[in-house]
Design goal:
41% of the residues lie in helices and 23% in strands. With 227 residues, the protein is of the alpha/beta class. It folds into two domains: 119 residues, Rossmann fold; 98 residues, Winged helix-like DNA-binding domain superfamily/Winged helix DNA-binding domain (Arc Repressor Mutant, subunit A), CATH 1.10.10. The strands form three sheets. Strands 2-1-3-4-5 form a five-stranded parallel beta sheet, sandwiched between helices. A four-stranded antiparallel beta sheet has the order 6-7-8-9, with helices on one face. It is elongated, with a radius of gyration of 18 Å.
Length: 227
């Protein structure tokens, strides 16, 4: 799961980033509202955590603009304010949940998991598309038609999770690079090509009728093969 954290308080941000990384989540941290909005518009995040009081643009405005531009990423507002009016403002701006500081780390993690499940439709038995079942907790891909399973590398798993949750859409190389390697990573687009090749071979290995189709000049699309 990739999480966007928008928090300008350095000590708080460092603590939350450390917590999320300890839980094996991928985290990108920004310190102002303008950067948060730009990151949200990339569409690569499973959940966003927005502080209300940030430079350039507050969390309410970030959520409002993001929703106005069609961003559907679940948003958790994280702030020192706890008054009812602030909660209402946050939810009316497009946030999905609201937590006041200080907070219990277990509650934060539970709320993030709940928002991610709501966003992806994740079920304990895995993600489904066509004749495939992807089980993130086991890093395995299974074809229901052949009964064949295969273990996935970390990058292959992240690629398939992202594409399962966006099947029917064309994912650009830039979106995939940011989703799998993060904004601050200097991974080149040929890394996407290499790992996409590995992932396609796993689909062939299990005998699936699902393919990752390259769309010339645009990116990749997960779809069922034409009969």
């Amino acid at each position: 799961m990739r999480i966007l954290l928008a928090e300008d308080e350095k000590r708080m941000a460092a603590a939350v980033v450390a917590l999320l990384k300890q839980e094996k989540y991928d985290v990108d941290h920004v310190e102002d509202g303008a950067s948060a909005l730009e990151a949200l518009e990339s569409g690569v995040y499973d959940v966003a955590v927005l502080d209300v009081m940030m430079p350039e643009m507050d969390g309410f405005e970030v959520a409002r603009r993001a929703r106005g531009r069609g961003v559907k990423t679940p948003i958790l507002m994280l702030t020192a304010k706890s008054q009812l009016d602030d909660k209402v403002t946050g939810l009316d701006s497009g946030a999905d949940d609201y937590m006041a500081k200080p907070f219990q780390t277990r509650e934060l993690l539970a709320r993030l998991r709940a928002l991610a499940r709501r966003n992806t439709g994740f079920q304990d038995e895995g993600l489904h598309f066509g004749d495939l079942i992807l089980e993130p907790s086991k890093a395995t891909l299974t074809c229901t038609k052949t009964g064949q399973s295969v273990r996935l590398s970390e990058k292959e798993l992240h690629i398939l999770e992202y594409m399962f949750n966006n099947h029917g859409k064309i994912m650009t190389r830039e979106q995939l690079a940011v989703k799998i390697w993060g904004f601050e990573n200097e991974a080149e687009y040929n890394n996407v090509e290499v790992y996409m090749s590995f992932t396609r071979k796993k689909l062939v290995f299990v005998g699936s009728g699902v393919e990752i189709k390259a769309v010339r000049g645009l990116g990749y699309e997960l779809r069922e093969k034409d009969v």
